[in-house]
Design brief:
CATH class of the domain at 60-128: Alpha Beta
Number of helices: 5
Number of strands: 7
Organism: Bacillus gobiensis
Largest sheet: 4 strands, mixed
Pfam family, one: SLBB
Radius of gyration: 43 Å
GO biological process, one term: DNA repair
Structural class: alpha/beta
Protein name: Helix-hairpin-helix DNA-binding motif class 1 domain-containing protein
Strand order of the largest sheet: 2-1-3-4
Distance between the termini: 139 Å
GO molecular function, one term: DNA binding
Length: about 210
């Protein structure tokens, strides 16, 4: 009993220190838990990948290639393609084609007509024209009558002549490509299906240059 009385204050102090230490330790743990949670959430937010916008897909366009190329016709191209791309797709130019009249770097547009002229043949400086427009001087004024230049006219322009339909127009184009063009308007009678009577009807409306 004497021992207890003698050291009771020391025991009480030791118990107080232990309790205080436990309290401080518990508070520190709470503070650490409170700080770690936002950090973990923030890290997840940073690491979450952002949704990427898909690249814009090129649009399909349709181009009509005519004139001195190996494979004239209508070709499906992509927006952003240029004149030299569609000429390559048409097999390239023929011998005697005048590429100096072409703008090979011109951007293609849907419905465009690309006409590759031959040397000595008049053509547009760009070598291309939007749908519904001609890139060559296929008509000229002769008094009050219009004449069609059969050396440069497109199939559509040839079909404006009397008695010339789509099939006959393609025959005329094939003839001039195989023979280097028409030297005189009378050469039209060398085209299959065009005789003297047909030529007399065409004569006032055609010319060559």
């Amino acid at each position: 009993m004497e021992w207890i009385k003698k050291y009771k204050w020391a025991a009480a102090g030791a118990a107080f220190c232990i309790c205080a230490g436990l309290y401080i330790f518990a508070e520190l743990n709470k503070k650490e838990d409170h700080e770690v949670l936002p950090k973990e959430v923030s890290a997840e937010a940073i690491e979450k990948p952002q949704e990427e916008t898909p690249p814009e897909q090129p649009q399909s366009i349709v181009i009509d290639v005519k004139g001195a190329v190996k494979k004239p016709g209508v070709y499906d191209m992509q927006s952003g393609d240029r004149v030299h791309h569609v000429i390559q797709k048409a097999g390239g130019v023929l011998d005697g084609a005048d590429q100096n009249q072409l703008n090979l770097a011109l951007l293609l547009q849907d419905g465009m007509v690309i006409y590759v002229p031959k040397k000595g043949e008049e053509g547009a400086a760009s070598g291309a024209a939007p749908e519904g427009q001609s890139n060559v001087e296929s008509t000229e004024q002769n008094g009050s009558a219009k004449t069609v230049n059969i050396n440069t006219a497109t199939s559509e322009e040839l079909q404006t002549l009397p008695g010339i339909g789509p099939s006959r127009a393609e025959t005329i184009i094939a003839y001039r490509e195989e023979n280097g063009g028409f030297k005189t308007i009378e050469d039209m009678m060398n085209v299959s299906g065009i005789g003297e009577k047909s030529f007399e009807k065409l004569k006032p409306s055609i010319t060559v240059k």
